[in-house]
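Repro case for the chain-ordering regression, as requested:
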Amino acid sequence: MSKDMSYAAVMARKNEIMKQAIGIDYSVFESGGISFDYERMMREAGYTLEEMQQIQAETSVGNTPVVELKNLTALARKLAPKGKGARIFIKDEAANPSGSFKARRAATAIYHAKKHGYKGVVTATSGNYGAAVASQAAKRGLKCIVVQECYDSRMVGQPEILEKQRACEAYGAEVVQLTVGPELFYTFLTLLEETGYFNASLYTPFGIAGVETLGYELAMQFREKIGRDPDKVVITHAGGGNVTGTARGLLKAGAKDVEVVGASVDLSGLHMASDRDFNRKSFTTGHTGFGIPFATWPDRADVPRNAARPLRYLDRYVLVKQGEVFYITEALSVLEGLERGPAGNTSLTAAFALAQEMDKDQIIVVQETEYTGAGKHPLPQLTFAKQNGIEILFGNPDRDEPGKNIILPAHPSDIKVRDYDIDKARASYIKNCINNCKVTEITKEDFEFLVRDAKTDDSFVEGVLAELNVKIK
Amino acid sequence: MISAKKGDWVQIRQVVLKPEERAPQVPEDTKKMPLELWVKGIAQEDAKIGSTVEIVTATGRKVRGELTAVNPRYIHDYGDFVPELLKVDMQLKEILFGGDSNE
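-- result from build under test --
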């Protein structure tokens, strides 16, 4: 008898399909309520740091160089008050095999799939992760399917995503492209069921742990080069894996005093699943359309429990504007001789502004770069924006309206960060936990989990629970 | 009329969900449209653009759909020249190095 392939029937088989496709029994980490044993999951379902370094070394992933951006620092100092202007460094993750830090995540996922006898992998991503999975799968001889949300209903595709399609196909993968919509997950499930391949999700314990080597390496490189840990590390934040993995790696290196700053491009006002809005944004990742939903409800991901839990690790979360990131991408190119990004330069844009708040003898690090190329470059992206009716203006980036215009700063002194209130995100996360679990009282264990998972204190969680009329047993 | 021969590298299209089958949480503008899918592979028979054809994909899956392209080219490029970016480049060099820094 053939299976019912209707949307409702496939979605109803979700847990069964996922269990087969990931090979992790998440139920052993569950408490039955809101809480689960995150550290146990990371320990038992993931790999040790040494194992990951070994796995990544086998496919030439990691050990990327750290570059001091002396000219960009000099520019920041020209604009900063006297005595201010921290040294800006960048970790050139574009040096990884597929051109981004995502190779680290893919390396451990593909190793795991191979070790457990899967013949191939499927991943749902329109970004660098797809290329990373395809590249690592090629290296280890596994088949690979990448599912992309690519086109609007006119079959017009974001140039950046079209480039990712090309890269994935160059690495030998099959690319399945879809129009806009969250039902991509339905197609993803049908492919997992049809092929029996491994779900190379971005959010498994081994995927996230793969990024720990980045944070660890970074701390070691600074100790060797400068003799101490950096003061701030800025991380482009989207789904939360970059923040989580890097911060965990820093902690494993004992770099406990480093301030972890997340940065996203502000795309407020654009609906991520809208056919019309889809091609009106010039960033396909690193933006608030992922950053805020994934911070405030990480378990929305394609695995039962998301190993990326950004609120656990973020000390500060800042927003920058599309026009500012394009401006800084140009600066990296003409002042530092490095053509990278643009999306990966979100954290660099924030660092440029943050450096001006910091003392001259301090150090701020941008922990990634990404490759650039046709489609994935300020020229095609701004050309595409213009074709979609977006105005490119010079002025105050704070006045931008995502989907209507992109405002390039009239002067680099117009580049700044806007602090996103993390307490607002924490409160919203706690509310989502309560609403999704549909509870009116929670256990002491759940309470302690919320304090840890939101990186806050007892009184904050008590306050949010009181507002929701939720009692602690 | 473009057509594919058996053995050509082609792209096909499928409608995955009709507008009325789309998920409830989808925004109104998206809900008016079907969820469409494109995938490439080797044609298993001769076919004309718009007709149904079976392909074998890079992972060896057999998929049927409407033929949309033969030897599809990558259409993305470096776009048009964007004068605004030149202005940014010149401003940055001027601020940091001054006008006559090359002399």
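Ordering looks correct now. The first helix of chain B runs from residue 28 to 31.
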